[in-house]
Amino acid sequence: MSDDLVDDSPQAVLKNRFIEGIKVMLGREPKKPTVITPEAKKIHFYKKGNRDLIAEKLHARAHAEHKNTWRNRRWITLILANLLFVVSFQFDIQILEGALTASRLIGFHSVDLNSGLQVILAHKHIIVNLVIGMTTMLVFWMLFGGRAFCSWLCPYHLLAEWAEKIHLYLVKKKLVTDQTIDRRTRSVFWLIFAGLALVTGYTVYESISPTGILSRALIYGPGLALLWVFALLVFEVFFSRRAWCRYACPIGLTYGVVGIISPLRIKYTLDGCFHEGDCRKVCLVPHVLDTVIKGRAVNTVIPIGPDCTRCGLCVDTCPTGSLKFEVKGLSKLL
User: Which of 65, 93, 250, 255 could pair with 146 in a Cys bridge, judged by C-beta atoms 3.0 to 4.6 Å apart?
Assistant: First the structure.
C-alpha cells in the first residue's frame, strides 16, 4: 500500500493502537508499529542521536526522587481491604461478609466476575443475587481500571510481588534464570476452566484459585490448600517470575477485558521521555509498556493498554513524569 493511502491521523493511529492493546492482552507479543502520526515522527527524529538529550537523560536519572508513593498507597489499600474481611468475621460486625470471591458490603452483594461466570457455567442458570453482585463489581472495576483488581486487592498478587523481588535478587546473583512462557497460555487456561465448569457442573478453578484460597484462609483459617499457593510461589521464585499472574490466571484476563473501556488509565507522553527503560524494569506486566521503547510510540500522547494493572510503579519510577494516572475526559491528572 502506498504511503499516501495510509491514514496516519491521530484518530486512526490510536484506534489501531487500541485494537493492538487488546491483542497483546490476549497473548500476542507487541510489534513495532508500522504507522506513526507525523507529530510523533518529528519527536522520534529529533531524539535520534541527539547528544544533548543523552546529557539531559543522565541528569534526570541522577536527580530523580523515587518515593514509591503509589506502591505504598496500593499496598496499604490491599492489606486494609483484606483485613476488613477478617475483622468483620472475627468480631461479627457484618460490615463486609464473605470473601473476595463473593461478599456483601453493608447489605450490597458483590461477586467476583470470574467466579460468578464460573458458577453460571457450572449450574447453567441465572441466580438473581449473583447477577446483582456481578453487575456491582462490573461497574466498580469498569470505573477503576479493570485489572486494578489484581494489584490493588488480590492477596496473591502482593505475595507474588514480594516473591518477584527474591527472584530478581537470585537472578542478579546468577543463582537462577528467569524462564518466560508464552503469554497466550493465559487465554488458553481461561477457556479450559470455563469449559470444565460447563462440562463438569463444578467450579474447578475456584478450588485451585490462589486468590480465593488466600482470602478464605485469612478469614476462616488456614487449610491444606495453602500448600498449593506455597508451591506456586516457590515456582515463581526459582523458575519464572510472576508465572501465575502473567501466564495462567483467568481472573486477570477477565478484569483486563473490563479495563478496555475504563476511564482510569496511565497516560504516556512521548515528548518528555528519555527512554531509559526504568519503568519497564519495575512494571509487573512489562509488555504493556512496549510503547515507551525508543521509536515505538505511535502518537505524542498514548494511553497504556487494558492489560495494565494500574499499579503505579512506572509512575513512581519515571524521572520526567512522562507516565501519569489519568481519568479519560478530565484534564487534571491524579
Answer: 255
Domain boundaries, the chain: 3-64+263-327, 70-257
Alpha-carbon separation of residue 68 from 235, 277, 305, 317 (angstroms) = 27, 17, 22, 8
CB-based contact 151:313 (threshold 8 Å) = no
Q: How many residues does the chain have?
A: 334
pLDDT of 11 reads 87
Residues whose CB is less than 8 angstroms from the CB of residue 109 and which lie 6 or more positions away in sequence, other chains included: 102, 103, 129, 132, 133, 136
Question: What is d(CA 104, CA 223) in angstroms, rounded to the nearest whole number?
Answer: 23
| Cβ–Cβ under 8 Å, residues 115 and 102 | yes
C-alpha span between 157 and 214 (Å, rounded): 11
SS (H, E, C) 2-25: CHHHCCCCHHHHHHHHHHHHHHHH
Q: DSSP string spanning 252-314?
A: HHHHHHHGGG-SEEEEEESTT-----HHHHH-SSGGGGGGGSTT--SSSEEEPPTT-----HH
Query: In which region does residue 275 sit, left (phi positive, over 0), alpha (psi from -120 to 50) or beta (all else)?
Result: left
The whole-number average pLDDT for the span 275-281 is 89
The answer on pLDDT for 333 being more than 50 is: no
pTM for the full model? 0.90
DSSP 8-state assignment for residue 227: H
Report pLDDT for 54: 65
Query: For residue 29, what pLDDT is reported?
Result: 93
How many whole angstroms separate alpha carbon 150 and alpha carbon 168?
21
C-alpha cell recorded at residue 138: 462490573
Per-residue pLDDT at 184: 96
Is the confidence at residue 2, as pLDDT, over 50?
A: no
- Averaged pLDDT for residues 171-189: 94
Separation between Cα atoms, residue 233 and residue 324, nearest integer Å: 31
Phi, psi for 326 (deg, rounded to 5): -150, 145
Question: Higher model confidence: residue 76 or residue 1?
Answer: 76
